[in-house]
Amino acid sequence: MDDLLREFVTETHESLDVVDVELVRFEQNPNNAEILGNIFRLVHTIKGTCGFLGLPRLEALTHAAETLMGRFRDGAPATHEAVSVILTTIDRIKMILDSLDREAREPEGSDDDLIGELERMVERIAPAPAAEPGRTIGALTPQVLERPLRPGEDSLDDLERAFHATPVEVTPAKSAAPAAVMDEEPAKGGKDEEPAKSGVQSIRVAVDTLEHLMTMVSELVLTRNQLLEIARRHEDSEFKAPLQRLSNVTAELQEGVMKTRMQPIGNAWQKLPRIVRDLADDLGKQIDLEMHGAETELDRQVLDLIKDPLTHMVRNSADHGLETPAERRAVGKPERGRIRLSAYHEGGHIIVQIADDGRGLDTERIRARAIAKGLVSEADAATLTQAQIHKYIFEPGFSTAATITAISGRGVGMDVVDNNIDQIGGAIDVKSVAGVGTSFTIKIPLTLAIVAALIVEVGGAHFAIPQIAVVELVRARNAGDHRIERIRDTTVLRLRNKLLPLARLADLLGLPDAGGDPARGYIVVTQVGSRTFGVVVDKVFHTEEIVVKPMSSKLRHIAMFSGNTILGDGSVIMIIDPNGVAQALGSSVSTQIVADSEAEAREAAAAAENTSLLVFRAGSAQPKAVPLSLVTRLEEIDARTIELSDGRHMVQYRGQLMPLVTMNEKVRVKGEGAQPLLVFSDGIRSMALVVDEIIDIVEDRLDIQVASDNPGVLGSAIIKGQATEIVDVGHFLPLAFEDWFRRRERPEQVRQKAVLLVDDSHFFRNMLAPVLQAAGYVVTAVGSAAEALNLTREGRAFDVVVTDVEMPGMDGFELTEALRADARTADLPVIGLSSAVSSEAIERGRRAGFHDYVAKFDRQGLIAALKEQCDVERAA
Amino acid sequence: MENSNSTLSEYVTAVVGGQLFGLPIRRVQDVFTPERVTRVPLAPPEVAGVLNLRGRIVTLIDLRHQLGLDRGAPKGPGMAIGIELRGESYGLLIDSIGEVLQLDDTAREPNPPNLDPALARMSTGIHRLDGQLLMVLEVDRLFEGTGHAQAA
After folding, report:
1. Would you state the pLDDT for residue A610?
2. Cβ contacts (< 8 Å) between A219 and chain B: which residues?
3. CATH of span A3-198
4. Contact A85, A117 (CB under 8 A)
5. Which of A186, A300, A381, A668 has the fewest beta carbons under 10 Å from its own?
C-alpha cells in the first residue's frame, strides 16, 4: 500500500474516533455549535481526501453524512435516529477503511441502503431554510469538471461553497497543482487547527521506531549498570567522572524516550461514549458516562493492554451493573444510571476507577456459583466476607449473569481482565455494596520496560523485588519492637501494633534455608492491593533499575516470578512477583487473617466474620482461645525473672512492673524454664496472662454457642473442630489493675442485630466487639466517625450505633448530629460511650440525639442499653 | 525434506548420555560453554537454569532429562547448543559436541518401533554411521508434551 493511502487510513481512523465521541456529546448538547463545527470539519476533511485518493464509496458515504450534518448546522434538531444513522455510517466507513488497510482498495459492495437512509433523514428533518444543495447559486463562479459526477460526489461549486461555509479552510482544492499538494495534505488534515492554536511543532513517528528506541535505551541502561558495577570495584578509577556523566545522560535519555511513549489515558477511553450510547439503546437503559482525568498519561504499551479490559468493564457496568429505568425508579434512584471513569497518578502508579451506581454485585449468586464450580466448599464459603466472595468474579470462567446477553456474556469474563492487568504488574480490586453500586479500582505501573527493584539474597541466590510493592524494610531482632514471633509453623511480625504475616521467601521458592537464626534476617514489608505482609530474606543489597524481560515460556507458569532481568554484573536474576507471594500466603490460612487491613475489616461486616484466634492451654487439656487482636504481644520469659511482690506475681517488663495473672487456680506460675505469657496492653499499662502452652493461631468464626457462667470465660465455641473456651480478657484486666474494667458481662442470647461500633481506640474496639458478639449482636467496628458515616451513606443498614464520645476529628456528638441530619439514619438509635459521665455530658448527648449514654467500662450497662434500644425498635 | 532425491543435510552432532544426536544445522545458532548459570527455583526439572548470553537471556534445557536418558551426572561442565524456538532462546545442555556431518536424507531410516516413545516423538529418524547410530532430533518437537511449553 502506498504511504499516502496508509497515512490516510491512520488519519481517518483517528478522526472518526473523535467524530464518534463528539457526536455522542452533540446529541446530549444539541445547541453546542462548536461541537458540531468540529464534527463537520472532520467529516468534510475525510470527504475531501477521499476525492483525491479515488475512493468512491467512502466519498459517497461521507458526502451523504455531511449533508445530514449540514442540516443540524442549519438548525434542524439532532434527533436520536438521525445521530444513530450517522453513527452507523461511521461504522460502515470504518469497515471500508479496514479493508482498505488490508487490501489497499475499497471492498466491493453498495452503500445505497445507508445513503438512502441518510437522504430520507435529510428530508424528514428538513425544514431547512438553506437552499437545496447541488444547485449553484450565489456569487460563486461556475466551474467545469471534465467527467460526470460519481454518486454522492459534489460538484466543484458545492465544494467551493462548503469551503466558504466551513470555519477553517482545510482542503487544498484551490491549489493549481494538486499533485504537489497531495503529499502534504493527509498529514495536515484532521489537525489543521493545531499549529495555529498552540504553535507546538509535532511530527508523526511510527510506533516501531519508538519501540526500537526504547529497546536501545533499555540496553543502554543495562550497559551503564554494568559499567557502574565495574567502577564500583575499582575505587579510584579515572573512569569515575565520565561514567557519572554517562549515567546522568542515560537517565535523561531514558526519561526522554519514556516521555515519547506516554499517551493520555483518554485515548483508551475514546470509544467508550459511543459504546455506552449503543449499549444504552440496546438495553433500554439511560446511562451517563462521566470521564475524569482523561489527560493522565501512561506508557502506550500499558495503555494498549488495559484498553480492552477497560472497555469490557464499562460494558459490564452498563449491562449487569446498572438497572433498567423502571427498576431504578422502583428503588428510588434517578432513572439515569451513572458510570464514572476516573484516572489519576498516585506515587509511581496510575489508579483507574470504574464505578457505577447500579445494583451492586450479587453476593449470594457469586457464592452459589463459587460453590457450584468447586472453588470453595460450602462450609468455607459460609465464613467468607462479602469482599472475599466478590473476588471470585476474577476466577476463570466465572460469569454470573443470569441471562447471557450479547453484550457481556461472551465467555470473556473478569478473569481475562484480571489476567491482562496482572500481566502488566497491576492489581485490580472490587468494592460493591448491594443496591448502591460497584466500583473497580485498577492500579497499574506507569511503565513496564524499566522498573526499580530491590535486590535481595535468599538461600544463596539473588532475586529482584519490584520497588513499587515494597513499603519498607525492617530488620528483625530478637529484642526490640520488630520481632518475629513464632506460633507453631506460623510466623508473624508485630510492627507498630499490627501483626503482619510473614512469608519466608526461601520456603516459597523451595530453597534451602540459609540456616541462620530465623528470628534474624530482613523483612521486606510488601503491599499488594490492600494486603500487607512481610517477606523474609537473608540479605538486602541495593536497588537497581532493571529492564524487565519476559520469562521463557518454559518458566512462565511459576507464579512467584513476573520476569527476569540481567543485572549490572551480567548475571541473570528472577523478578519476584508480589502478587504470587500474596497468593501463596493466602493459601496458608493461619497467616492470612492477620493481614486483613483495617479497610478489609471494615468491609468484612455483616457477613459472619472470621476472627483470628490465639489458641492456648491453661490449667486444663481443653483448648482456650482469645481474639488475637486483643493480644499485644506473646512473650516467653525466663521463669526465674518472675518476682513475688505484695503477694502477686510480677515481672520487670520494659522498665515497668507488669503484673501476672493466672487464668485459674490450676495454672501454676512456673519456677524455672520458659514461661509463656499473653501480654495485654492499652498503651500505658500492661498485664500478662500466665498460660501453660501457646498452641496455634487459627482463623475461624467466633461463634459462641454455649454461654458460660464461669468468670473469665465468655462461652464455648467450635474452633477448628474442637470445643474451645473463649476467654473473657475483660475479666482478667481488672485483676491486674482494678480500674481497668469493673466487671465482666454475662452474654445473653439476643436475636441478631447489627451494631455499628465507633471507637478511635483500637484496643477498645477489639475489646468490645467480641463482648457484643458474645451477646448476640453482629458487630461492625470502625475507627472514626468519618468511616461510620461512609458506611451509613453507602446504605449499610444498622440497628443501632454505639459510639465513643471523645474521638479525634469528628467526635461522638458531631457524628450523632450528622446521622440525625441524614434522612436515612435520622431515627437510628445511638448509644454514647464515655469514660466521663457528667450531667453536662449527658445533657449535651441528649441534645445531639443520643438515645442512651453509658460509661465506657460499664459493659453490662451497654448490653442492657443495646437490648433496650433494639426492643424499642422492635416494638415500633 | 519431502524431496525424495538424494539431498544432503548438515547436522551438528552431540553426545548426550552416551547417545549420538544430530540437530539440523540451520536450527543451531551457536555452541557455547554455559557460565554463570542462574538456577530457577520451582522450575520444571528439565530446566537447568538461565544465563546471559551476550545480552540475551537463554533458558538452559537439560537434554538428558528432556530425552529421558540416564540421569547420571554429566562429566565436566558440559556444552550447550543454542537454538531459537518461537522467538525464545534456549540452550540445550549436552555432554560433548561432535563434528558437523553431511548426511544423505534418503539414507535416513525410520525410528525402530521399539524405541522409547518419548524419545521417538522428538526424533525424525536414524542414520547408520560407522559403528554407531545417529538420532536426528526435531527441534520443534523437543518441548512438545512436556507441559508449560505452549505460550498463551
Report:
1. 58
2. 55
3. 1.20.120.160
4. yes
5. A668
How many residues appear in chain B?
Answer: 152
Distances (CA, A) of A656 to A417, A630, A648: 55, 20, 15
A264-445 is classed CATH 3.30.565.10: yes
Strand pairing class (A830-834; A852-855): parallel
Cβ A696 vs Cβ A487: under 8 Å: yes
**Facing A549 at nearest CB: one of B40, B43, B57:** B57
In whole angstroms, give the CA distance from residue B42 to residue A510. 7
For residue B50, the model assigns a pLDDT of: 94
Three-state DSSP at A709 gives coil
**The domain A598-736: what is its CATH number?**
2.40.50.180
Over its C-alpha atoms, chain B yields an Rg (Å, rounded) of 15
pLDDT at A143: 47
Q: Do A554 and B36 touch (CB under 8 A)?
A: no
DSSP letters for A740-785: S-S----------EEEEEE-S-HHHHHHHHHHHHHTTEEEEEESSH
Domain with CATH 2.40.50.180 in chain A: 463-595, 598-736
What's the CATH architecture for A207-260? Orthogonal Bundle (1.10)
Task: Give the distance from residue A728's alpha carbon to the nearest chain B alpha carbon, in angstroms.
Answer: 45
**Amino acid B41: pLDDT:** 92
Low-confidence spans in chain B with pLDDT less than 70: 1-6, 70-77, 144-152
> Using one digit for the tens of pLDDT, what is the confidence trace for B113-129?
888 877 888 888 899 88
Among A511, A564, A571, the residue with its CB nearest the CB of B41 is A511
- Between chain A and chain B, the number of residue pairs with CB atoms below 8 A apart is 69
* A553 with B51: Cβ contact below 8 A: no
Predicted ipTM of the assembly: 0.86
CATH topology for A463-595 is: OB fold (Dihydrolipoamide Acetyltransferase, E2P) (2.40.50)
- Spell out the domains of chain B, with CATH numbers in brackets: 8-139 (2.40.50.180)
Contact predicate A658/A687, CB 8 Å: yes
CA distances from A89 to A58, A62, A72, A734 (A): 10, 8, 16, 80
Interface residue of A538, A552, A583 to substitute, partner B, most B CBs within 10 Å: A552
Determine the angle formed by the axes of helices A3-28 and A80-103, rounding to 10 degrees. 170
In chain A, residues with a C-beta closer than 8 Å to the C-beta of B42 are: 509-510, 558, 560
Going by C-alpha positions, the residue among A185, A191, A165 that lies closest to residue A173 is A185
Query: What sign does the CA torsion over A314, A320, A324, A328 have?
Result: negative
Is A573 in Cβ contact with B57 (below 8 Å)?
A: no
Question: How many angstroms separate the CA of residue B25 from the nearest CA in chain A?
Answer: 23
B68 Cα to chain A: minimum distance (Å): 17
Residues of chain B contacting A, Cβ within 8 Å: 36, 38-44, 46-47, 50-52, 55, 57, 59, 61, 86, 88, 90, 143, 148-151
Domain with CATH 1.10.287 in chain A: 207-260
pLDDT of residue A831: 87
**C-alpha cell at position A327:** 427498576
So what's the pLDDT on residue A838? Answer: 66
Average pLDDT for consecutive 10-residue bins of chain A (876 residues)?
74 80 80 78 78 79 82 78 82 84 79 84 64 42 49 52 50 39 39 44 80 83 82 78 87 83 84 86 88 85 83 85 87 88 77 88 83 80 80 72 44 70 77 86 74 87 88 73 66 72 86 63 80 86 81 86 84 88 62 34 38 80 79 78 81 79 77 81 72 78 68 76 79 67 36 80 70 76 86 84 84 85 83 72 77 71 77 54
Q: Where are the beta strands (DSSP E) in A137-275?
A: 262-264
Query: Is the domain defined by A753-875 classed in CATH 3.30.460.10?
Result: no
- Residue A308: Cβ within 10 Å count: 14
